Amino acid sequence: MMTRRRFAAAILRLTEDSALRAQMGRAGKAQVQRYRLDTVLPPGDGALFICCKGNEYMIRENQRLLNQLHILTDGLMVFLAMLVSYWLRFSLFRGDRAMPLSHYVWLGLGAAVLTLIVFAVAGLYTSFRAVRFHVEASRVAALELLVALIVMAAMYVLRFGDTSRWTVVFFYGVSTALLVAKRAALRLLLRHYRAMGYNQKRVLLVGHGDSADLYLKKVASDKNLGFQVVGYVADSRCRADLPYCGGYDRLEDIFADTSPDEVVVALSADESDRMPAIIHACEKDGTEVSVVPFYARYMPSDPQVDSINGLPLINLRRVPWTTWATPLSSGPWTSSAPCSSLSSPRP
Question: Long-range contacts made by residues 7-12, C-beta under 8 angstroms, separation at least 24?
Fold first, then answer.
């Protein structure tokens, strides 16, 4: 097994080779594709593949470290919330101590682990760059309520009847406040660094037309999102505000040149037949892809997506009474029912 020191030495010896460096560099930027290092590494270490583009490897490593710190601080805050709740219940409000402090320490550790599991399953550790803060805060509050209810239920199942229920109530309030405050501070910190040009997400825009214009308008109106559009792909030059990267037939070369973190597909209606080739190129490169439908301007900000046997249905206009009236409208006494959905194949 190769250690980090030997790995760093192999990278150094590889980049010192002028011939390989000429192949790896393009326009002054290191573009390492897939090079075998059998001749660089000692026998027995096998083949090593390096897949990095410029500083992309370092950026992703730092992002992974930040995500791990984010998770660890969540667990730490939940554990501290239990200790603060213990102090509030038995020191500030002078309640009767039926269980020792060690019991609540173990309860706090269990609540911390449970919180991390619930948050991970609910997708709370995915990117919330484009999600409003009040939406994230409401999810945190709802999930912490679930954790508090599970802890309360476990107290009865495990026969911990002497555990203070008010401590669990205080725990919910304190833990929610700490987790929401931490996320608010994190957003303010990221907003500051994004204004300085850091923590930017490189986006490649594929397509042109109204949907592409709408996407660029939304991104430009909120700099706090941290989206940096590095260029656009189209049949020909049609914009003066963005660099033109090339046509649709050069997607793989464009991905290698621009190194996007995300590809946003905003095709017009007459270009929808290009979607399969674009998705295939993104999957081959391993790049995240998002789609702005050509009918996006007619959609609400939070559309409801249903599914009929795997076919996604995007509800453009949902009437509130149809939710409880569905059993009545679908009975044998009806001949037809209005449909306010627009079907769209899932990319």
Answer: 7/48, 10/37, 10/40, 10/41, 10/48, 11/50
Inform me whether the pLDDT recorded for 345 exceeds 90: no
Whether the per-residue pLDDT at 318 is higher than 90: the answer is no
| Strand-by-strand arrangement of the 341-343 sheet | 304-308, 311-315, 341-343
pTM here?
Answer: 0.66
Return the CA Rg of the chain.
27
Residue 196 CA neighbour count, 13 Å, CB half = 7
CA distance 145 to 175: 10
**Comparison of pLDDT for 192 and 320, the residue scoring more:** 192
Tell me how far CA of residue 29 lies from CA of 19, 182, 259, in angstroms.
15, 37, 11
Q: 137 with 183: CB under 8 angstroms? A: yes
The answer for 28, left when phi > 0, alpha when psi is -120 to 50, beta otherwise, is left
Which residue from 33, 34, 210, 224 is spatially nearest to 132, judged by alpha carbons?
Answer: 224
Q: Do the beta carbons of residue 295 and residue 302 sit within 8 Å? A: no
* Inter-helix orientation angle 165-195/101-121, to 10°: 50
> What pLDDT, in 10s, does the model give residues 52-102?
344 455 555 667 788 889 999 999 999 999 999 999 988 888 777 777 888
CB atoms within 10 A of CB 9: 14
The helix (H) or strand (E) run that includes residue 72 is: helix 56-87
User: Phi and psi of 291, rounded to 5°?
Assistant: -125, 130
